[in-house]
């Protein structure tokens, strides 16, 4: 599927973008849109993956706007408990992939895949957690070393008509702790996912805690939370029809109606957890996995961020990111789903990508 649009000044008008984008993506998800959405990804009876090892553990008190706004960004018993902020999943079999999504999501054979037990963070790693890591180790992130990062902004009419991927810019001085570039900081943002981190940054943090990044299969097993049905491939909404994750409602990239309550990144845990008690597995920030991206390669439907990075920058290995972000919309991404996958160069920091960690059971 061709998913990037060339906008030529004087030929494509800003106001017609919705028609172009909607037409381009209507075919891909006809089956998913027609499927019943009465069941929510976050609803239903609690499946067995969330097991007894979680009993009496201090799970995060999140799941609403009020709770996420009050959250400090540091889980209970942070640094005292090796599994602080994590839940245990005993592992099991699930269908890896989707027949209703993009070509690179198609299951191999019947898709049945087994994963062993592991601990996984309830939320994305927050700015507060990453700041604690930096304070303890003196770590310097890749964005700081490279001198910038790829940052999203809502483009103007002139920008849209002047260049492709007008919503992405390489911002000098942008980094995890300077999200909008020099002069910006994390005041009031410590409970948000850390972004503008590369896969190496995520590995460094995980290894500091004796943890790892999830494989793509582990991540998807956790994201599907024991479910296997067409509802997994629909835009996540609760029983009242309200978006149950932070993704784009409106016309990407020019109008976000913020029906979900947030026009950009939100604090972690503002929406109900899935049935494995995990927050924000869908939307808010894409999440790094440890796996190299293979299969039917498809261009980024949010725009290939590498195209706006400095020309002098070397191209690194494309890795799998999972879960979608606040930029995923029904007309220009459709990756607000557990089976969705995307590629990102391992060393390219961007404002819509974060991560969470895992700790595998001893074999």
UniProtKB/TrEMBL annotation:
Q: Which residues form the Sulfatase-modifying factor enzyme-like domain?
A: 84-358
Record-linked Pfam families: FGE-sulfatase
Source taxon at top rank? Bacteria
Q: Keyword Cytoplasm, does the record have it? A: no
Signal peptide from the UniProt entry? 1-34
Q: Which UniProt keywords apply?
A: Signal
Establish whether keyword Signal is in the entry.
Answer: yes
Q: What is this protein called?
A: Formylglycine-generating enzyme family protein
Q: Which organism is it from?
A: Paraburkholderia sejongensis
């Amino acid at each position: 599927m061709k998913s990037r649009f060339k906008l030529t000044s004087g030929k494509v008008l800003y106001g017609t973008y919705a028609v172009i984008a909607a037409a381009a993506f209507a075919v891909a998800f006809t089956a998913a849109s027609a499927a019943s959405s009465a069941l929510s990804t976050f609803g239903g009876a609690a499946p067995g993956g969330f097991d007894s090892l979680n009993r009496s553990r201090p799970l995060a008190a999140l799941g609403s706007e009020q709770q996420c706004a009050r959250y400090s960004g540091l889980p209970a018993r942070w640094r005292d408990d090796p599994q602080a902020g994590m839940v245990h999943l005993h592992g099991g079999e699930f269908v890896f992939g989707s027949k209703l999504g993009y070509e690179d999501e198609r299951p191999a054979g019947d898709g049945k895949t087994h994963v062993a037990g592991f601990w996984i963070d309830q939320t994305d790693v927050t700015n507060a957690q990453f700041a604690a890591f930096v304070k303890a180790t003196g770590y310097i992130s890749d964005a700081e070393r490279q001198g910038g990062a790829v940052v999203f902004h809502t483009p103007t009419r002139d920008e849209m008509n002047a260049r492709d991927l007008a919503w992405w810019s390489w911002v000098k001085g942008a980094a995890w702790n300077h999200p909008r570039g020099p002069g910006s900081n994390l005041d009031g943002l410590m409970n948000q996912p850390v972004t503008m981190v590369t896969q190496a940054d995520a590995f460094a943090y995980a290894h500091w805690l004796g943890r790892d990044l999830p494989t793509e299969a582990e991540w998807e097993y956790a994201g599907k939370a024991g479910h296997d049905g067409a509802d997994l491939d629909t835009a996540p909404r609760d029983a009242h029809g309200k978006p149950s994750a932070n993704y784009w409602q409106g016309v990407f990239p020019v109008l976000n109606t913020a029906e979900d309550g947030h026009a950009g990144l939100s604090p972690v845990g503002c929406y109900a957890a899935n049935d494995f008690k995990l927050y924000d597995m869908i939307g808010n920030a894409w999440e790094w996995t440890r796996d190299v991206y293979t299969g039917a390669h498809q261009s980024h439907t949010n725009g290939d961020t590498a195209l706006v990075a400095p020309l002098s920058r070397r191209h690194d290995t494309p890795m799998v990111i999972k879960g979608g972000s606040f930029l995923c919309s029904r007309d220009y991404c459709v990756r607000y789903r557990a089976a969705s996958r995307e590629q990102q160069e391992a060393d390219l920091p961007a404002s819509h990508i974060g991560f969470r960690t895992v700790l595998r059971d001893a074999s």
